[in-house]
């Protein structure tokens, strides 16, 4: 009865073709129904039905991601069939679904061994393909002898696949090298192009992991390079020599001649020609003849209409650019022309090459060319261009930038590019240049003012970080501004409501700095400030006090007060607090501003409050090393507990919220003036500061003086004139490239400004990879096999003499043991120690290239 049911199921079973037709009909539940049928059919005892079910399951797993791990045992059953069609389906399912964690993996070891020893070359081929895909440590160890036998098979198909499976066996079981490596090397002398291609491909993969171990095989590879006419074999051999020549420079001179011969051939394939060029650029760049020939040949790729060949040409130039930039400069016209190519990969490679050409002489022209391309490029490539310019110009603390006024203007232009999304990077560089380059602060304030008064930038969220940096610079370096009133007006314009609250807080704080600076100049009675640095009088009939008039100061205060009134009730606490602080300050000083015009008293309470705020903002900010915290030494005796549960008990008083009765909104007032008066009274007293705090501060400054930045502002900036000279912002016409623009020019007469650099090692250190290489056992096994191979002929030459003298030496040694037993025992121990040392030295002895090639 069971056999009749099995027969009926096999007769009406749907084949793989039926499954595919059903899937094309688009039935939503067809896959689930098919899986139910497969689960039922695969449990039957008939191998034909089981194999068809397994075939359908493999198809669903490959195309629809259906899980088939549950059918692992059934795949083993199908593989055991004597029919080749069943074996093929079973091996395909095993290769597709088995992994190192498959429970039934050990069950196929004997089946693989049986099929590897089969007389049917196609069954052997199936077993080898399966082993190459799922081979584990145990399978590689148990089947090494079978693979060794197949490496010498007379059937080309079997030997070719055995050569391919060696790569998996060596990787999983390095001791297999002792058995199979010699026969693998022998296949390098095969006249069959398919076998030669397979074995060279295996050595190409092995050389990529550890090229030094394969240096003794250089003569065999050289012979193939000279004699072979197969392009794919030659490409693999060139890849091998590219690795070997990089660690053995003597090989380069020998290999350069045949490589040049291949490049000079008339109808050489493009793939082989490119591999020759890449080999020369990467490993034979010291050979002048080969390098010049490769540069000539690379132009054929750059001038070709095929974008793939053009990309390969640009990629090859990017390889040689670090060592021989002249090769790129000779093809600069083609590189710039590639920037307008339709292929994005070609444009990207051309951009990288242009960035490799940049130096302090041509950075202005190249930047202008790239900015022109950025304006007419898609958003993705536009931002890649801007990012490349920012990275190249800021490298090594702006080493290639001589004219910082020009560079700051360029940063301002980047913000106006329609697709610009590099706001974070531009923000960082604007602030960084302001803190590092003092001579560039006047231009920084000018660029910042232009950004703040541009209403179109407020609506672009990607540019908000740039506006944040511009607002900070305008307030921090307001003394370089020619129109503080305009800056304050731009900082408090109504459209700033489009900005995030965090940036609006910076706007308000910068407006506070502008107000304090203006009031300080107005109340200053010591030195008159240059009229070029202050706001001109808004009323021609008013008398000026230190460059500011009563009308201009009153207008500034009223404008700030009006702009902040609406912000004092905002929901963001940071913006609300800053606005109320400034309004409180204005409430204190507003009624006494008018008295300054007639009063001669310079020591009023308001004047002292303004002077106090000037002192607060007078501390100059400087750059901080990104690794500064890591360099602070850990104090001796400091114990850090990983568990911080006791922190709440220790800091109970600090962490507990204060009583609400301590605060009253009616009692909050601005008392900066009182604080200033109290500080002056304490300073005027004759009591010296506590000795303990002074000594601790001095000791800390002595130990960590590296992290103390100078707080003295140079007065040089105040003496600079306010001429709005735009000569530094003139760029060469876009896309017009002269030959001299890429060559070195005379240094500019204008000296390069001083750039504040931090201590060496500012960049964060990358931790070295502590993990040992997984290929180390394989490399040792290869070296041992090759050294044994090199010594084989020498052993054969001395074998006869050794056998003749063996008896005589044994007699002499026995007589010595009888006469001087004790002394010989000591010598024996010394010889054993020497042998141990020789053995250790042989392991670490570097592999040498035979003189046959060199």
From TrEMBL:
Location within or outside the cell: Golgi apparatus
GO cellular component: AP-3 adaptor complex; endosome membrane; Golgi apparatus
Stretches for region Disordered: 707-854
Start and end residues of each Clathrin/coatomer adaptor adaptin-like N-terminal domain: 28-585
InterPro entries the record matches: AP3_complex_dsu, ARM-like, ARM-type_fold, Clathrin/coatomer_adapt-like_N
Signal peptide: none
Keywords: Golgi apparatus, Protein transport, Transport
Example GO biological process: Golgi to vacuole transport
Comp. bias (Basic and acidic residues): 713-723, 757-768, 791-805, 825-842
Subunit structure: Adaptor protein complex 3 (AP-3) is a heterotetramer.
Primary role: Part of the AP-3 complex, an adaptor-related complex which seems to be clathrin-associated. The complex is associated with the Golgi region as well as more peripheral structures. It facilitates the budding of vesicles from the Golgi membrane and may be directly involved in trafficking to the vacuole. It also function in maintaining the identity of lytic vacuoles and in regulating the transition between storage and lytic vacuoles.
Assigned protein family: Belongs to the adaptor complexes large subunit family.
Listed name of the protein: AP-3 complex subunit delta
